[in-house]
Amino acid sequence: MSENDRALAADNGWEDAASVLDSYRALQEGMNNMVMLPDEAANPEEHSAFYEDISKSWTPKNGYRFAMPEGLPESFPYDQAFAEEASGWFKDAGLHPDAAQRLHDSWVGKMAEQYAAHEQQVHSRTEAENHAAETAHQELVREYCEVESDAYQNVVAKADRALTSLKAAGLDITGWFADKGALTQPDPAGLQRVSDPMAVKLLAFIHDRSFAEDGLSGITDASQGTNPFDSGSLNLKEQSEVLERNPSRARQMIVVAGRDPKLFRL
Questions:
Q1: How far apart are CA 215 and CA 225, in angstroms?
Q2: Residue 1 contacts by C-beta under 8 Å, 6 or more apart in sequence?
Q3: Which residue, of 2, 12, 74, 232, has the greatest Cβ tally within 10 A?
Q4: What is 57-69 written as a DSSP string?
Q5: Which residues contact 98 (CB under 8 A, 6 or more apart)?
Q6: For the whole model, what pTM was predicted?
């Protein structure tokens, strides 16, 4: 035997031919239990079967236990139920625990980014609404004096009554005002604030023109078919009363009825 062969025999503990054969039998038994890597000619089914076979050695039987990534916002709403559901998907896919953890961290990180962006948008919108509401309040104060003054309280009461009356007539413009930025979006309690003083002035104007006398507007009368100037519901007595009591309202009702105010000397 060469020196190399003698060294190999010594390293493997071979003292005679029988020990060499015993070593070879052990090697064969070990190779029979080995999972063979598919060669280049293997089809997709063979590759899939290979992966399924080897993944059994590392797939946790009781599901994955994920560690939380660092740097998450304190208020981040971690979805434990979804994480458990995803754990089942990872198990079915035979993912190694390290790969499952990386995928989990990527998912949580993306959700955290979106959550932080949403929180920033909400914060910015709230700040903008607060600033607009305060600016509107100060403008109304400059024009109508302090909140406790009769002028301020009167214009606010007019605006509120006009808004309520329009809503009762089937014309709820609260959402429209909010969309236009004249009112803030409702808070959790459903309350809104004025963010454009023009809304208050407009509603007060509508009140003075249409609701000041008895709460019945030309808009309401016309929509309900009780316009005394309408050809389908003529009422000379009511016409005379409206013309005498509120010419501006009478003009509005005449126009709604499709008639010429000049015929009534307006």
A1: 17
A2: 9
A3: 12
A4: TTS-TT---PPPP
A5: none
A6: 0.54
Structural domain range at position 192: 146-264
Return averaged pLDDT per consecutive 10 residues of the chain, 266 residues in all: 90 90 88 79 89 88 89 91 92 94 95 94 92 94 90 88 84 90 87 92 88 49 66 88 82 81 85
Number of domains in the chain: 2
CA distance 32 to 67: 38
CA–chain centroid gap for 201, Å, is: 33
89 and 172, same domain (yes or no): no
3-class secondary structure, 183: strand
Closest CA to 204 of 238, 171, 166, 168: 166
d(CA 151, CA 159): 12
